[in-house]
Amino acid sequence: MYRLIKAHRLSVRNTYTGSLNIYTETSDKLCSFCHVHHSKMPRNLTFSQVRHRTSTINTALLPIVKKQKRKPKRYAELLEVTHNLTSNRRAAVRTLNASHLSLLMRQPDVTLDKLHRVKRTNLLKISNAEINTGSNTEGSQNILGLQTPGLIEDSLRMSAENQKSGMTVMDDLETSGISGISDTALMIKDRSLLNSIPDDQAKQDLDDDLEPLKLIPIQKSKKKKPDVSDLERVKQVHEQARRESLVRTLNAYLRVCVSTGMMGRAYHTIMHYRKRSGKIKTAWITDITLFNILLQSYASSGNLQKVKEFLKIIREDGLTPTAKTYAAVFECFGRIPAAKKEQPFLNDIRRMMNRQNITFDEVVHQSKSKRGQYSSVRKAIKLLDPGFEPKPQITEESYDCRLLQRITPDGGKPNCSPIGNSLTLDNINRRYSRQVNHEIVGHVEIKSIEKFDKSKPIVPYYKSLISELEEEWKRTASEAFDRDLKALKSREYQPIPNAMVLYPCLCVLDKEEYVKAILRETWRLADGSETFSPSFSFLCKNLGKHINDKYEILESKNHGYLENLQKVYSRYSKWYVDRPDGANGRTAWQRIAEQVSPELNLELESIRWPVNLQISVGKFLYQIILKDIKLDVSRVRPCSKTKHFLPAFYTLFRHNTQKYLIEEIKPHPILAKIYRDSQPETLKFDTSLVPSECPPRPWSSVQSGGYLLLRTDVVRVPIYAMEQWKRLEVVPKRQLWPSLDCLNQLASIPWTVNTVILDLAIKIFRNGGSERLNVPQPPSVLTPPPLLKRDCSEKERKSIFKARMDLRRQKGEMYSLWCDALYRLSLANHFRNKIFWLPHNMDFRGRVYPVPPHLNHLGSDLARSMLIFALGKPLGPNGLDWLKIHCINLTGFKKRNSINERLRYANEILDEIVDSAERPMDGEMWWAMSDEPWQTLATCIEISNALKSPNPEDYICRFPIHQDGSCNGLQHYAALGRDQSGAENVNLHPSSVPQDVYSSVAGMVEDIRKRDANNGVEVAQVLDGFVKRKVIKQTVMTTVYGVTRFGARLQIARQLKDLDEFPQEFVWSASLYLAQKTFDSLRSMFDSARQIQDWFTDCAKVISTMKGKNMEWVTPLGLPVVQPYSKINPTRTGLKEVAMDTYEKPNATKQKNAFAPNFIHSLDSCHMMLTSLHCEKQGITFVSVHDCYWTHPCTVEIMNTICREQFVALHSEPILEDLSEFFVRHYIDPQQKDRNAKEDLESDLSTRKLKHTLTNLPQKGSFNLKSVLKSTYFFS
To answer: Active-site residue 1187, yes or no?
Structure first.
């Protein structure tokens, strides 16, 4: 005993006590009152870590093993009958289906213990309890042996669980209409049904199966082994994926090492992977770009020895030098004093260039990536050619597109500035300085319009507490960053650093920037939503991207980019204000940049980190947030004298829309309460989420444009979609200019806020919102569900539980809408009486969107009503009439009437329009009855102001007039197929009154319903009087965009549910009926559209399944499109990104279903872009919301003419024929026919089938496309 005590004391004597760690343990319990699981109060578990004889102070926690519920073992009792013995065997079931039982029945000599030998599978693990034949009669009659009480209880419990969880497998099958012979096999395959077959049925089955049977030999089906060439091809594809991933990550890693001065690490890293190339195929370094990075770095420091060494390596590895390679060599010679001594070496370089046909001009043009490089290269070249002077780089400015041949580089209308005289040049330059500062800081802080209760005395205390917490967290984060960075450096240390590590990425900025990023995340998390939070990986990616953005801005400063940008932008803003020529924004920017900044290219190379690297950086910083940021929970009470520190943030796991758990981060409830009750008066937005204060930088390439310094993606694609980016980077720049110029035109339009509408909306929002006026209400207006009582029945409990779940969902939806309105109104209030711009980008199909998501013209009715043009123009002779027509269009009252009748109606109710403008809330409120009430009110106010002016024609109007397409998707289908009937229904053909396709379809559905009602169909009788235009409109609208039958059913069910008179018990059956009849009516009305859509679907099916490739095409304006739908999302490990859509199997279902709507969307986008470019040429204001075009009232006629002309020009192109040729050229190997005919008949047949499908174009109708030019209601 003495020795034990002594040993215990000795073990504690020389120890190191680590930091006090507090963990939170949570559990739940089943309430005996309401029979619902409730969470227990969290219990804090405090551990003090003790170490013995250690040389490090880093904590080493034992892993906490989670308690996991043991899965019940699935088994069945089978009765084995032989000539001498009956055995009741209990078998653990892994996979038991109809074929296995059939094997037992058909081969009576085979016992259970030999079954696995016959099947060559380890099917059953058997432990038998043999019973004499006459000892248990009942048992011999029960084939499943259900007489054991334990089995019966397990079966009942499993059955009850299945009933509670939802429909069983058999319920799903019965619902799907599956029945017949295969039902028995499906029942046996369902393991949960093995223990629940009735005894009588089992007895009958036993009697049938015990009859003498002949032994039937089993013939195994021969599975076709994959071809060796196919396996080799798949292997090569995966190897290529790993190589590309390695190159991308190495590219970013080497740049970071160079930026941080870790040249030795960069050198050893590339040498390490070069050495591995001979051993590991996926480590091949064959990209000359990686060597150019180090070459340029050594050249800028004048290290000629290293430059020669790398040139030797390039020759040894068989790589081909580029103009950038030679630029780095000449830069080195331009920086060293004794360059003439190396004249023979320079002559060798010149001979190498001549063999590759690389000129000195090409080398000079590739030496504009950083300050001083251009002059050094010129100086070195003059050693070889003293009279050398670089030739100016000639850029082809005209379009390479048949549809844009009439638009020349200087063919636009001069002196038509988008801003007019609203701003001076000095004002724009000051705005430029503010915008650059916002982008460097990374966020914008604005005042919130939320109404607070100022009477709470605790608010000042919470405000001061938050300031103290942030100061404490700043010190803590700084210390933790130093500690963890030191530990990371020690952990990643190698005598010769060779492999890629995370350490350089955490040294590329000052420590203060990382600490600011950590504090930025703590604020965002603490002020986040209670019901929703992004996944942990998403948060890490965003934090890593923020560090990447900071790094890019720092690099642009170091390379002299910021100084040259200011010079170029100053000249560009002067051109923007004056517009002395007819050039567009991109052409003007390129010309000015060539004149002002000839030695530095403003189109910097992308230094964007791969997503896996961004996530790794974000995870490192988030570990500090989770482990070191603490909160004294006792400080929530002002007079508390105790201290109780807990982690301020914790992780939890939630189910996403799929079956997987997603890790999320939430703030401590007390921290969330402190931030919420502090009543923050400001909101912080990332700079990329806020409109620009100055004209955006024009897009001149896919890498340069949008905001001034912040990198904006020109195309919105998922993070793993690499194919689209590859296409954009390899196509000629001229091919992308139409799309980029459209983005520039839309971004050049200045906006301002309609202050009258803004003030009224803020007033209603602060007073609790309005359901009638579509102003979001706070979740507090909802009434709580009834309380549970002890004597509640099971049905009442379920009803209350469902009501609570519905309330929780409704609260989340309402809070989301309320926050959206808060952000939008606060931003609009921030830009009150100011002018701002909206940078634009596009999705992969070419559809255009503003980059700032909150304050733009693409939102709801309220969002659109708050924005007007900053440039005002006189109404002109017809402007007032267009305002009145637009007002009636917004109401939806006269959709089937002609334009003249709408104008006459507007004049008849002019008093109500003026009353709405002058007394919007206490008058007759005619505007509130409109389909778009807020836009209608804004139009009423503009009409009233114009009428009050002495001369309405001279009234300066900033209000936009909308011209909307008539079911634009069907218009494109009708034009593609030259469908006469379809064209008439969607207003491609001239008519005296607008044709409403929604009403036409509703009429056809009603005729079918009447026939079915007369035949006694119950649901058709119930729908009497409810088949209205509004019920089926959304389904008709989205049919051409790929809505499924299930989606259409939901759309119609939502409309029927809103009808108070409709019997709610028939909503689901009636929606199914109407969806089916709507689809049938559309297919009969648009025959050519149906054929084209079927051809699209067939092409996508054979391409994605037979060729295993993504659907790909090129729009008529030259934009390459690749559908980003793959089977598996990318998986990443460490710093290596493994999977990309290039090498993943395409999701054939999504590829097939999405191709038709995506192709129509791309045509819709082409029509908009053509209209945009021609409106810019004419000098008129133009913006769009997809198929809704906006302009000033005085230029509506001009825009309408352009719109129709460009639609005819677009569809006069052989769109389907070009698409078919592209498919054949892209997906069918021209040499495959001869090779397959000799080697593989099956492959030859599949190729013929593929070619037949791709070339089997649907026939066209007789519609005259030029009729669109005379159609008044094509866009109206």
So the answer is: yes
